[in-house]
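Q: For a teaching session next week I want to show students how multiple molecules come together into a single three-dimensional assembly. I've collected the sequence lines for a complex. Could you give me the predicted structure tokens for the whole thing so I can convert them for display?
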Amino acid sequence: MQRGDTALEVTDLRVDLGGKTVLDGAGLTLRAGELVTVVGPNGAGKSTMVRAAAGLQAFQRGAVEWMGRPLDAVRGRKLALIRAFVPQRGRVPDGVTVNDAVTIGRSAHLRMLQRATRADQKAVNRALERAGVSGFRDRHLSTLSGGELQRVQIAVALAQEAPVLMADEPTSQLDLGATVDVAKLLRGLADDGLAVLLVAHDLSLAAAVADEVVVIHQGRSVATGPPGQALDAARLREVWGVDASLEMAGGRTALHVAWLGR
Amino acid sequence: MILRRTAVLAVGLVALVCGFAASLALGAVQVPLHDVIDALLGKAEPGPFKQIVLTLRLPRTVEAMVVGAGLGVAGALLQGALGNPLASPDVIGVTAGAGFGAVLILLVFPGSIALLPVGALVFGLAAAALVFAIAWTGQNAGSVGKLILAGIAMAALFTAGTTSLMTAYPDRVQSVIFFIAGGLTSEGWRELEVVWPYLAVGFVIALGLIRPLDRLALGDDVAASLGARPRLVRLGAGIAAALLAAGAAALAGLLGFLGLIVPHVVRLAGGTASHTFVVPASAVGGAALLVAGDTLARTVRAPIELPVGPLMVVIGVPLFLWLLRKAV
Amino acid sequence: MRRLAVVALTAAAFAVIAAPAGAAAPKRVVALTPFTANTLAALGVRPVAIGQTLGGRERFNKRLKGVRTLPMSHPNGPNLEQLASLNPRMVFNSPTFRKGSVGIRSLEIKVVESDPHNIAESVAQTRRIGRIVGKRKQADKLALKLLKGVANARRNIRDRPTVLLILGVGRTPFVFLRNSWGGDVLRNAGGSLLTAGRRDRGGFARISDEVVVAEDPDVIIAVPHAAARDIPSITRYLRSNPAWSTTSAVRNKRVYVSTDNSLLQAGTDAGKVIRTVRRKYLKNAK
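A: Of course. Below is the structure for the complete assembly, covering every listed component.
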């Protein structure tokens, strides 16, 4: 895939969950070499949209196209070779090391009873390096901290070596330092040519790393565009109901909030 | 890492081979070793020794290996698919169903005793089918919690049925005790001939599920991301486990302990939860444990035969506790 | 005057002697085991109720027809309320339901446990039961009749075949040992029980098929809990058991099934049972 090619196109998506319409008229476009963050208040439908696009959630109306092909045409292993999804909170099984877990991420490339080859091993090593977790590759997952776990989850997805990376709030468990590390990692991946789609809670982080921000409000995409545009003061007041503004200057991004109102 | 796994497998295989030999050479009647070998090579004269080795001990040893392997694999499949260390064939209702089917024949239709393995198989599979039907329909279809709850409820139902039957026929109950305690019988190849297709299908499905089960380890979302279909894998694991456990119960009564403990022993010994190791190792471990237990059951108080179930617990639990203490 | 005094004294003497004898003959008796029920019937005593296990096939004396039956189940045996409502003076119970005996005694009813395991014990128990219900003379006669019947049945035994006598079917053989009713009957009929050396508390033992093959019985008799109509299918099943295919019993087609309980439960007709066993199974009648 070349930089700028459309990797993912979501149009007019409708998802009903448990009798309620969670999404209606949501959409986004993701291109190679781009990092798009999806933001919105709690319950707006951000995670649902990204999961539906990833093929993990059924949708009632609308279209999802991967590299120009509809979702139904690219199922199972084929989809696994196109996109890697990092969930918000993965399972932490006993008796599994970091190396084992990242090797599992390789399984989309392995046929039924095929053994892992040297190339697969190399891919695992690359993924471990990139996510910065090679240092504890032999430790059991159950012994890792929240931050270490989240980086391992990203490593698992990287082992898939898919051109698209989707992550649902990948920094929710991280402290400031670790969040900065992950932010650099994700931005670096996009700069290397991957298409990265993030769901984020933290608006200043979202603005800092993204090429494009998609704002979801009450199940609809209400704004799409560069961070400064999509997250202007008017939007922040309309969607989140707060008096705030985004400032991006001198390599720093800050969200100025009138915490105590007037 | 790999070295440890290979060592564990090697130890298991050695134990299995020794158990196999011991099971053929030892029993209630002293058969000289050269007679045992002659019988196996087809050189023996017709007589009680040949009969004992070829018609009593050989089929029984093979049954013990097959049942032990089947239960070990069934437990490994379910623990992997349900992501729960307490999972075992009992949890999907198979053991209780098979018990009910067998007790029904033993107590209510003693004239149809030849159908005992069929009864156990049919009811064991029926119980599992009911559990899957409940768990895969309606809200939250195919979720782990629903499956476990349905299994527990169904097991309770069939166990109640069994207990009621036993209360209704108190003077016939003793013929049921041996089945419930779990024990193999020396009836030649007769029972194995009926049951082997079910076990074979179960083993084949299990083989195909080894990789997919590993993909479930990190949760359903990651599994789906990798192109696996977690619910289908879970259903497949349930079906294979049901076939293996129902077949095992038809041959050897209710041996619940094996399916639960052997995968844990294997995981603790090998230091890994990867199914490419755990499933085959559970097969070998389960077979070795049951063959050893059965040999002991036949020799410890000869000519009286003890039921294997309690004896295996006596062997298996100390081993398990020792490993548990050593584990991280 | 003196004559009157003698008569009065004699009458009083009789009254004194007769009274305890009358008190020793309780009118209302409940017999919870088939053996005690049948023995009482043979002694001419009609119990107010007899016990019958659920799904059991006990054989009862014809004279007990119409007697109320109390269903027996674990753990107490009869329903204690039903039993109490009958107001019995005495109950004959089986040690199997010992817990029930405790309960019955707490109702201030006398309980006697009786459970003969072999013919000698059944004779002794017959005498004991007779003494308890005040029919000592009849009981002694009955006991004598029993012994004579058994002695007659044991005459002219030419053959002493090895017999495997098992309880139930399928799974591992559960054999009758010497100290069980069926084992004793077989022994008296001239049969040599497999593993005759063993004695077990319960009278039964679960032995290995290897021992059966090694000891090669001439006759195999199974006593399953089944109906008479199941005999052909059970016989077929036993004959086709591969484990026993080399035994003389299977090769000579001497595999039998007995469903009438005569080998399971102690009876008052041991002589007849022995003769039947000889004729039907052992084939060593003269």
